[in-house]
Amino acid sequence: MQPLPTKYSVIVFVLLGLTCWAPLQAQTVPTADEVLGDMDWSAGEKTKILAGEFVTGDVKNVTDRELSVAIGFLVKTSPADLAKQVVSGVGLHADPQVAAHGTVQAEASAQDFQGVTLTGGAAEVFLEAKAGSSVNLSSGELKAFQASSGQTDASKAAEAQLRAMLLARHHAYRTSGLDGIAPYDRGGEQRRGGDDLRKASAGTVVVKKRFPAFYDMMNGYPKASLPGMEERFYWVQYGKGGKANYVLEQMVTASDGDVHAIMQRQYYASQGYNVEQAVAGFFPVEEGTLVVYVNRTSTDQVAGFGGSAKRSIGRKMMTGQLEKMFQGGRKIVEQ
Fold first, then answer.
1. Torsion region of 111: left, alpha or beta (phi above 0 gives left; psi -120 to 50 gives alpha)
2. Is the whole model's pTM more than 0.70, yes or no?
3. pLDDT (tens digit, 9 = 90+) per residue, 36-59?
4. Which stretches within the chain are classed as H helix?
5. Is residue 68 within 8 Å of residue 273, measured between CB atoms?
6. How many angstroms separate the CA atoms of 59 and 335, rounded?
7. Is residue 14 a contact partner of residue 328, using CB atoms and an 8 Å limit?
8. What CATH number is attached to the domain comprising 236?
9. Domain extent at residue 249
10. Sign of the CA dihedral 102, 228, 196, 57?
């Protein structure tokens, strides 16, 4: 099994820097104890979390292609103080796997993707892609890149096509949400990322139970939304050369008093995994801020024969990556 690409795992720290919080419209704002109970964490595990340890929890997979993990940890500062520190630059710049990134406006234009470049062997990855390969492209996108390979400067043509594709996928998602995500051509099979994200949302039991309006937004975006909710979009390039992974990412924040909920959704990834969705909750406690984080990543690498063992290995890898990233981010904000 190949190592999973590091994703934008410091998202929980980045999003604390967003200052416009919308109402969660919770039926009853839950306490930290109630949320930990919903996550099936024991009293002993809660004690470890509040003592500064990272505690992982089991999350039931919703498909045989999913890697899922829950993590609880403490940041010894208030949510407000944490936000002030994070907004100064912790986040994208703290992730060594991020080679480049850019902000995408909701009503994006080609200008938003001018920073996207193909270097090293990255162009060849797209130019040589075929149905069923490890590159995530629709049938139409495959044909467009194949056409680019016949041009005089194929690398530049591929780069232009990648920018156009990212723009088109962003507009489709902004217009039609999960239904607008073009499927990946797997050679006789279509892998629909929108379906996997919808199932990932259905698996967020705590959100569905405690914050039904936020849950409805996750499934029904963009038609379903929260009044005044804060959302931001990014393109992110992880890694370099032929191993570069180009990602489209949405961040949504909402709050109810001192309790904050966050959704980070990667609705396109060029390789390594299909789509990813993480939901985090921030709860004020006496020791500072309790962070509860659940990540669900869809990847074909763990499907099929030996899937159970692959998922076990993949989950350990992903948990290790997440903990390392969170530990680094926590050190920065607690300084």
1. alpha
2. yes
3. 888 888 889 988 988 888 888 878
4. 11-15, 32-38, 43-50, 79-86, 122-127, 139-148, 154-176, 193-202, 205-210, 212-220, 307-333
5. no
6. 32
7. no
8. 3.30.530.20
9. 11-109+197-333
10. positive
